[in-house]
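Lab meeting notes turned into a lecture example. A postdoc, R.K., suggested we walk through two folding results consecutively so the class can see how the record format repeats. The first protein's sequence and structure tokens come next.
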Amino acid sequence: MKDERGLTIHFMDGTNLRLRFPKQAPNEHAAVLKLKEILNARQLLVEAEGALLIIPFENIKYIQSYPAPKKLPETTVVAASVS
């Protein structure tokens, strides 16, 4: 599916959670605003399979999101590689 998105949340204890979901924002500008709201909230809210997951950022080591949006916050390092 073209508009499918995904997250892999890597937790501090070494476990991870993989999520797949449809596109959430109508355009790239809205996606950047939503990202900023999530970062300010310091928790990730996810509705999955009829349940609400509330994931505090303090439990998260990092989040891998794909595909990366075309428009990113200005402070984003781009064209990096993981080694």
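The second example is placed directly after the first for contrast:
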Amino acid sequence: MKHRTMLLVTALVCWAIMAVVVASMVWGSPYLTCDCTPAVDAITGFQLQLGTATPIDVPIFTVCETETPCVAPSYRICWDAAQLPAGPFSIKALSKNAWGVSNWTLPLAGSKSLPTSPILLKMVP
């Protein structure tokens, strides 16, 4: 009896973990990413600039959500876009290595807007 209870608990825990993983994949934030950098560039980091704000350093990644993984020493940006303020935005990026920094990319422009509330809730028989 103890073995069956332990098996049931283990199955429920595994199911709960899988549910959280699937939910995070379905409802996760959009991520800002880029193609894998050339290995010869020896990238050590990236910077993002949101509008005219001070640029921020972002780490390097080999894996970003559903994108095909990069093979080190190639890297990409994987920045959680949930950090964007509501409304219109503009983002540009640059790469860094031991020798300096690249030029800024062309800006990526868009708008972060939340959905409207459901209209006229009602009960139906």
